């Protein structure tokens, strides 16, 4: 199942076909503003053609929600609808939320992108990492992209942090970049923890300072009482090759704080989160999360032109907290940023 989240604008590339199934047969529900009705047809087509079992899509335009739709089924039994109460694990989309948490700390004067990590986290300076900056971590230049820990270790924040403190970087920090699939979350998240005067976990900081004030659901550490709402993932693999992915459907993984890859949310929450970076919303009920200067700094490239990603072996461009999506996916348009949830 896939969750589509378009925050300010959307570009649809699917060629439309005649939709013969009724909305009730595919559980298609929600709203579209005038001029946006065509999105409903595309979502219906996606379910009818079985590209997705269940999906949701939410679009904000100029600070207002113009599309908020759900369709399909919660799981393969096709007995429960995929609806606006359904939650979904979104993998690397979580990184964007973690980057926003860091940006909020920068805005409040608690962190500085150009400062050394050791200014806030002295233990990190071991094994050739003393010159690492906050920006290096946020733009995948820290040199610690790989990790062979078990999921049981991933559940233990302190264990992962201590391991990363001792790790020797694969390249001199700041001299190259390579996608940090999982370690990004603990590295960036520990910076937030180190400067939070309330000594909260990253998930608690996100709840209190970001998702709570915005009245959205985006969990890094899912409360037990919400587990029943999480739509299970189907990786489309045979059993032997999918065992390594099974953990992502386990409650223990959902309850852990793995802030590069286990966030649980829905489309309307992710869309509202990103919309809040640009505008006050709903008659000023929800205030803009980041000011213009901080947003500009957080979304400016920190990757040299044409520098090859040493992990992905392609050209990738990262800012101080986000993948610059207009480079990876030019069809999304100039200035687009964030993280897809297609892979860790």
UniProtKB/TrEMBL annotation:
Coiled coil: none annotated. Pfam families: Beta-lactamase. Residues 49-343 form the Beta-lactamase-related domain. Keywords: Signal. InterPro entries: Beta-lactam-related, Beta-lactam/transpept-like, Beta-lactamase/esterase. Residues 1-20 form the signal peptide. This is Beta-lactamase-related domain-containing protein. The lineage of its organism: Eukaryota, Metazoa, Spiralia, Gnathifera, Rotifera.
């Amino acid at each position: 199942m896939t969750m589509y989240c378009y925050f300010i604008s959307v570009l649809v590339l699917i060629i439309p076909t005649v939709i013969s199934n009724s909305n009730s047969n595919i559980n298609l529900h929600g709203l579209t503003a005038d001029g946006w009705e065509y999105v409903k047809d595309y979502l219906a087509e996606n379910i009818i053609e079985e590209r997705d079992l269940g999906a949701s899509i939410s679009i904000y335009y100029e600070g207002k929600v113009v599309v908020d739709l759900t369709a399909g089924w919660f799981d393969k039994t096709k007995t429960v609808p995929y609806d606006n109460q359904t939650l979904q694990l979104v993998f690397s989309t979580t990184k964007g939320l973690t980057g926003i948490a860091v940006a909020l700390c920068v805005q409040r004067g608690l962190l500085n992108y150009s400062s050394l990590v050791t200014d806030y986290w002295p233990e990190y300076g071991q094994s050739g990492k003393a010159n690492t900056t906050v920006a290096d971590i946020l733009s995948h230049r820290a040199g610690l992209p790989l990790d062979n820990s078990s999921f049981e270790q991933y559940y233990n924040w302190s264990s992962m942090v201590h391991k990363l403190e001792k790790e020797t970087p694969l390249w001199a920090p700041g001299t190259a970049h390579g996608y940090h699939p999982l370690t990004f979350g603990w590295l960036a998240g520990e910076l937030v923890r180190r400067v939070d005067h309330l000594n909260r976990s990253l998930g608690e900081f996100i709840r209190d300072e970001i998702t709570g004030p915005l009245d959205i659901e985006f969990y890094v550490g899912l409360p037990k009482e919400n587990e029943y709402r999480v739509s299970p993932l189907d990786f489309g693999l045979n059993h032997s090759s999918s065992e390594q992915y099974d953990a992502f459907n386990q409650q223990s993984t959902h309850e852990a704080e793995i802030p590069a890859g286990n966030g649980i949310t829905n489309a309307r929450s992710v869309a509202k989160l990103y919309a809040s970076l640009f505008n006050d919303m709903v008659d000023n009920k929800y205030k803009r999360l980041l000011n213009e200067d901080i947003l500009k700094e957080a979304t400016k490239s920190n990757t040299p032109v044409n520098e090859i990603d040493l992990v992905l072996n392609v050209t990738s461009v990262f800012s101080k907290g986000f993948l610059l999506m207009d480079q990876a996916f030019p069809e999304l348009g100039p200035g687009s940023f964030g993280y897809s949830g297609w892979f860790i």
